[in-house]
Design goal:
single chain; alpha+beta; Cytosolic phospholipase A2 catalytic domain; 13-stranded mixed β-sheet; globular
């Protein structure tokens, strides 16, 4: 490969220099040049041990960091190509087939160069169209001092007044049990209408606990899950739900549903779908896409503070702000900023979402993340294991360890079960980066997903063979190391649990374990009766993957899975029956799973398969694409799920009613 070292600098700086004066760090005729240092290879913990990046150092400004994080996509590909070529060159004397690897590395490098050049052209025209760019850069330059001044302000962060201890229990917290009571009272009339009886016939104790579960899958899943929920509104089911849990892309939908942007509207779900049609036109991976979103607000400094302030707060809380944290800030700049920002301040703390539902008027959201580690098994020895953590506006923790903290305390350091510092609650920007951190998954996960979702053909076969040849060249040990390596490190957080020697833990996208958030919904104390799961993940067309993930869930939670109704591929019904043996805390309450995969339907459009056509890295959608996705969700729901799910819920209600009367 040729020497591409000259491209390692930030092409953002090149573009800025075209419209800014040469004097760095000073204000000239209303324009600024970013005041910050170029990153170094000093902090290598971002992109594995064999890759260097200028994407992030503690010396760089937040704006530099945001821009560099976006540039990392090209940088990582280029570095990977160079590393692969280096391996080939070093092995060339001894390995006859090293030219295979070098050829692949050159191909990656050439693609990277084409992408960079195209991005340069688009970015140049975009940045010149932002009339208030200088004001935005000025807002970023003030960000550090703004956040630092408010870091210990009890009016801004009232949670810092309190110390906290870890709650050791496998039961639900009091706030959630109180919510369950008021929610059932609130939905009593809606439930009576849904099942077709007089409200006098409904005893709140008989109302089944209904939970919606949305899969991961990037912006595709964000749109599809919202579209399915909109369909359940027309059926009257939405108003009967109690929980709404999400993985990855669905978490993005939840964060918007429970924000002042939409939660206060007459129909938050429809309002969110309408918002997608205007908000998703610019690509998040365009370094200037987020600048355009910020430029639309009336309070630039507030916009920058809300979306990017969490990066500064995290570092002041003695945590590393990594690339994935910056990704979270880019997401919120894209999805959560509105023109008038003052009412939105509370939207950037997860604990504040309870203001929308604690009185029972809405479902309770459950966000998810996982921690990866190895466990010893009798059959296969060391095996990768994922511990599930749930994030609600009330608490954060894991029922596998029975350790919980108030959501407002997430970000603090804990020792001996008690917090040792008082820092603000972690910004939801960084949480969304963590919930959607698929780039932090091991390379092996990418490989398996590619094999399942890539279209069959010469390209797929060639790439798989290329990797197979490469694996043969480097040997099993090196192959295992490569497959366990992540492109980006997961989010860095203080551990809250009872392992004395453990101070930090790294949480990532729960989709690496299961594309559906079933683990928190079979919590032994939650007693969910019916789970309605919408699957718009990239593996939805591979039913075997769903079955295998079900088996793993059953083993870990002590569940016997009973196939009940598999007649329609658009809606399958399974019974979850508590069993005795399990690998961890077992489920204790029987429930029914209504599995609704987002599959193609010729009645909407022939051969339209969004889970294949729209990969999770697709971040732009036009109105026509969104409307088509909405139609597909509605058609699949009406055609196969609406009546079937209703019958399941009526049966669950009658079963609880009859048991109460009998006793």
């Amino acid at each position: 490969m040729g020497d591409k070292g000259s491209k390692k600098h930030s092409w953002f700086s090149n573009i800025i220099s075209q419209i800014s004066p040469d004097k760095e760090g000073t204000k000239e005729t209303g324009s600024y040049i970013i005041n910050g240092k170029t990153g170094t290879n000093k902090d290598k913990d971002e992109i594995g041990t064999n890759t260097t990046t200028t994407a992030e150092t503690t010396e760089s400004s937040v704006l530099d960091r945001a821009i560099h994080a976006v540039e990392n996509v090209a940088s990582v590909a280029e570095n990977a190509a160079e590393n692969v070529a280096s391996v080939a060159e070093n092995a060339a004397e001894n390995i006859a087939n090293a030219d295979i690897v070098a050829e692949a590395a050159d191909a990656v490098g050439n693609i990277t160069e084409i992408v960079e050049n195209a991005a340069m052209e688009v970015a140049t025209s975009t940045v010149k169209s932002i009339s208030n760019l200088s004001d935005i850069i000025n807002a970023f330059s003030k960000l550090e001092s703004t956040v630092k001044d408010k870091f210990k302000d009890e009016l801004v962060h009232p949670e810092i007044k309190e110390d906290v201890e870890i709650r050791r229990s496998y039961d639900l917290c009091k706030e959630e049990t109180d919510f369950l009571k008021v929610r059932k009272e609130y939905i009593k009339e809606s439930f009576a209408k849904y099942v077709g009886v007089d409200v006098k016939e409904i005893n709140v104790d008989d109302i089944p606990v209904i939970a919606f579960a949305g899969s991961g899958g990037g912006f595709r899943a964000m749109i599809a899950n919202t579209a399915y929920i909109r369909a359940t509104q027309d059926s009257g089911l939405y108003d009967c739900g109690i929980y709404f849990a999400g993985v990855s892309g669905c978490c993005l939908s939840l964060a918007q549903q429970y924000s002042s942007l939409h939660a206060t509207k007459d129909n938050p779900i429809q309002d969110l779908l309408d918002d997608f049609k205007t908000r998703l036109t610019d690509h998040i991976a365009n370094p200037f896409g987020f600048l355009k979103e910020i430029s639309k607000t009336s309070q630039l400094e507030t916009a920058v503070e809300l979306a990017f302030g969490g990066l500064v707060e995290k570092e002041h809380a003695n945590l590393k702000a990594r690339v994935i944290d910056t990704f979270g800030s880019l997401l919120t700049a894209k999805l959560l900023l509105e023109k008038d920002l003052e009412p939105q301040r509370q939207d950037f703390k997860l604990s504040q979402q309870k203001r929308f539902f604690k009185d029972g008027k809405k479902m309770m959201p459950i966000y998810t993340a996982v921690e990866s580690h190895k466990v010893e098994t009798e059959k296969v020895g060391l095996k990768k294991h994922y511990d599930w953590y749930e994030f609600t506006p009330f608490e954060i923790g894991s029922d596998e360890y029975g350790a919980w903290i108030p959501t407002w305390a997430f970000g603090r350091e804990f020792k001996s079960g008690k917090s040792v510092n008082r820092v603000p609650e972690q910004n939801i920007s960084q949480l969304l980066g963590m919930f959607g951190s698929a780039p932090c998954a091991p390379f092996k996960e990418y490989l398996e997903t590619f094999k399942q979702v890539a279209t069959d053909g010469w390209v797929k076969e060639k790439l798989i063979k290329l990797y197979s040849d490469f694996s043969d060249l480097v040997g099993d040990d090196m192959k295992d190391k490569i497959e366990e390596t992540s492109i980006f490190l997961p989010a860095d957080n203080h551990y809250h649990g009872f392992m004395v020697s453990k101070l930090r833990f790294e949480l990532l996208d729960s989709g690496v374990s299961n594309d559906l958030p079933l683990y928190p919904l079979v919590h032994s104390s939650r007693k969910v009766d019916v789970i309605i799961a919408f699957d718009s993940s990239g593996t939805v067309n591979n039913h075997e993957d769903f079955v295998n993930k079900q088996k793993e869930l059953a083993s870990r939670k002590g569940i016997k899975i009973e196939e009940r109704d598999l007649e329609s591929k658009y809606c399958e019904i399974y019974n979850y029956l508590p069993n005795v043996e399990s690998d961890g805390p077992s489920a204790a309450h029987p429930c029914t799973l209504c599995y609704i995969p987002y599959l193609p339907n010729d009645k909407v459009k022939k051969d339209f398969a969004p889970c294949v056509e729209y990969f999770m890295t697709k971040f732009t959608y036009n109105e026509e694409e969104i409307d088509l996705m909405i139609k597909l969700a509605k058609q699949n729901w009406l055609e196969a799920a609406e009546e079937k799910v209703k019958n399941i819920i009526i049966e669950a209600w009658k079963k609880k009613r009859d048991a109460r009367v009998k006793n």
